Amino acid sequence: MRISELSRRSGAPVTTLKYYLREGLVHEGERRSGNQTDYDESHVQRVRLVRALLDTGGLSIAAARRVLATLDADDRSMADTFEAAQHAMTDGRAHHEASDAARRRVAALAGAQGWRTTPDNPGFDLAARVLDDLAAIGYEPSDAYLDAYAAAADRIARADLAALTDRESPALAAELMVVGTVVGDALIAGLRRLAHQEATAELFPTTGDAHAAPATHATQRKDLP
Amino acid sequence: MRISELSRRSGAPVTTLKYYLREGLVHEGERRSGNQTDYDESHVQRVRLVRALLDTGGLSIAAARRVLATLDADDRSMADTFEAAQHAMTDGRAHHEASDAARRRVAALAGAQGWRTTPDNPGFDLAARVLDDLAAIGYEPSDAYLDAYAAAADRIARADLAALTDRESPALAAELMVVGTVVGDALIAGLRRLAHQEATAELFPTTGDAHAAPATHATQRKDLP
């Protein structure tokens, strides 16, 4: 297919496709006679994957390139692919270092859940910096607060891993592992915002008139966002 | 205090402080005679808050400014502040539109959890785009997968709201609501990475030699990340 057809099939504008090709995120098409280049199904799939990583996952071009490289390398193990996906979202993000106290608390939390982790797991720094941020505004999170987060993380992680076993081949499982790791953060962030609205309505009932009843929301087509 | 002392207290370099001041994220200090400007505790607090929003939360300057404006306005209700925080992370992020089918599935998921939501909740689009991304790589999430995410989101949201009631004043509760909404995404993302390592170790036991036993991790000081 031509680039215009690739654009139509993948939903990405032609200028975006040219950008992806120039940045090496999408493999070149086959050059034909004249000025024409041919693309195939593998390009459609790849463009969709790149969009998921960049748009929904919010990855930088450099981070997306690293993640895609592990998917493209035939000799990478599942564990290597997993590690690349784990680091993708946190690499290159400007940030201050987490305090030792916050890291210790996260390590204790992981230990209490029985998680076997390695110190280089980017989750330690990410979670510990949140504790520092909360401390900076004078909030010391209770054990109940952190336990709720840890239990939720445990539940999600099990669902993520169970999903991998549904895939027909190791290559497809690796692809889902990468995309799932990156966009799963957005899924829980989105659902958390929906759940917040319910929890806020309970806590501050004065805003209640703006809320639809749950039953109508799932059934009335024109009420959908 | 002088700007050098504000830098030491807040942990932000002087150039960063000047940038925050210029962008209007931090209020001006009091001009003294000569070339000197005085800062106080309110500046220390504000700089820490700005860093949490920008660094850990990954907000743009524009999004942080909008969120801070709702905190600064005396006449804003808790519900207004909440809405501003809800939208902060999703505003201005370049993305494609979610499909109707994905939105319907998210609406059904929210309905099944009994969440009262409004169609403008940014969580709908955020979560629905993830479903589209997964569909783009040929993965149709099972009900069990989505239910696990929704149940986790429900649990986290309740913990978030319970934390607000610990705060001594409405102003402090509003501050926690904003920071918690923004950095809470990073907290669950970090813990999810730690939980993934455990779940992956169970699924791919060959990588097991790299993992420490849970008990040692929480107790051995030098093993901490």
UniProtKB/TrEMBL annotation, chains A, B:
<protein>
    <submittedName>
        <fullName>MerR family transcriptional regulator</fullName>
    </submittedName>
</protein>
<feature type="domain" description="HTH merR-type">
    <location>
        <begin position="1"/>
        <end position="70"/>
    </location>
</feature>
<dbReference type="GO" id="GO:0003700">
    <property type="term" value="F:DNA-binding transcription factor activity"/>
</dbReference>
<dbReference type="InterPro" id="IPR047057">
    <property type="entry name" value="MerR_fam"/>
</dbReference>
<dbReference type="GO" id="GO:0003677">
    <property type="term" value="F:DNA binding"/>
</dbReference>
<dbReference type="InterPro" id="IPR000551">
    <property type="entry name" value="MerR-type_HTH_dom"/>
</dbReference>
<keyword id="KW-0238">DNA-binding</keyword>
<dbReference type="Pfam" id="PF13411">
    <property type="entry name" value="MerR_1"/>
</dbReference>
<feature type="region of interest" description="Disordered">
    <location>
        <begin position="205"/>
        <end position="225"/>
    </location>
</feature>
<dbReference type="InterPro" id="IPR009061">
    <property type="entry name" value="DNA-bd_dom_put_sf"/>
</dbReference>
